[in-house]
Amino acid sequence: MTEVAGSIESLLGERERFRPASAGSWRSVEAWLSRELPPDYKDLVDGFGDAVLLGHLFLRHPEGGDPLLTFMQEERRYFHSAYGDVHNIPEPVSLACDQLVPWAYHDWNGDVCLLVPPQAGADWSVAVAFRQCSEFLIIHGGVTEFMRLLLEEGKLPRGWPSGRPLWKSIDASPVV
User: Fold this and answer.
1) Pairwise CA distance, residues 154 & 162, whole Å
2) Is residue 44 within 8 Å of 50, Cβ to Cβ?
3) How far apart are CA 150 and CA 78, in angstroms?
4) d(CA 133, CA 75)
5) Among 15, 66, 65, 70, which Cα is nearest to 42's?
6) Please, are residues 106 and 56 in contact by the beta-carbon 8 Å criterion?
7) CA 82/CA 93 separation, integer angstroms
8) By the 8 A CB rule, do 139 and 94 touch?
9) What are phi and psi of 124, to 5 degrees?
10) I want to staple 175 with a disulfide (CB 3.0 to 4.6 A). Which of 50, 69, 105, 131 is the partner?
11) 79/47 Cα distance (integer angstroms)
12) Please, are residues 42 and 61 in contact by the beta-carbon 8 Å criterion?
């Protein structure tokens, strides 16, 4: 595969996973979401999923030990429960509240990363929901831009530790 500037592989290096999730596994996830996921997110998961990025960012995989669909369902329920009464949710997140896609979990402080579906022809965005203070960080440009900010510019969300390993497989991962 040729690396493209700004692609997931140009940011993280060669894929750690050699077999992408089956089309059927992705169809199950996208059927539950009632929409297709952005290609850069699927590339990230297929190449680096069922692992921990930067020491604390858990990235699930459709065929992983803790399947992606289960994670998304649980985190969406938790998000609605935890943020249902919060009134200062930024507009991109509040407008898409029932369509948010939880895609990663940071175990240092419980933050969750959400894909925010595009509104009116815009691109996907990433929102980090800070669990300690009911605030949000919005990154326009999707998963690739989010990872670029983390890895190339060192712009970690508030409270995220630095200097951790870039990638580590989850113990006993069934993903090859």
Assistant:
1) 8
2) no
3) 25
4) 17
5) 15
6) yes
7) 14
8) no
9) -60, 150
10) 50
11) 27
12) no
Distance, CA of 93 to CA of 108 (rounded, Å): 23
Q: Which two tokens stand for residue 97?
A: 């509240």
With a CB cutoff of 8 Å and minimum separation 6, the contacts of 154 are: 162
Residue with tokens 């938790």: 78
Could you tell me the strand order of the sheet in which 51-53 lies? 135-140, 125-130, 112-116, 101-106, 57-59, 51-53, 167-169
Q: Both tokens of residue 130?
A: 């800070």
Chain centroid to CA 92: how far? 16
Q: What is the pLDDT of residues 109-161, one digit of tens each?
A: 999 999 999 987 789 999 999 998 889 999 999 999 999 999 999 999 999 99
Instruction: Please answer whether residues 73 and 38 qualify as being in contact, where contact means their C-beta atoms are separated by less than 8 angstroms.
Output: no
Among residues 80, 65, 54, 18, the alpha carbon closest in space to that of 146 is found at 54
Question: For the segment 26-79, what is each residue's pLDDT rounded down to a tens digit?
Answer: 999 999 999 999 999 999 999 999 999 999 999 999 999 999 999 999 999 999
- Residue 157, helix vs strand vs coil: coil
Q: Looking at the chain, how many residues does it have?
A: 176
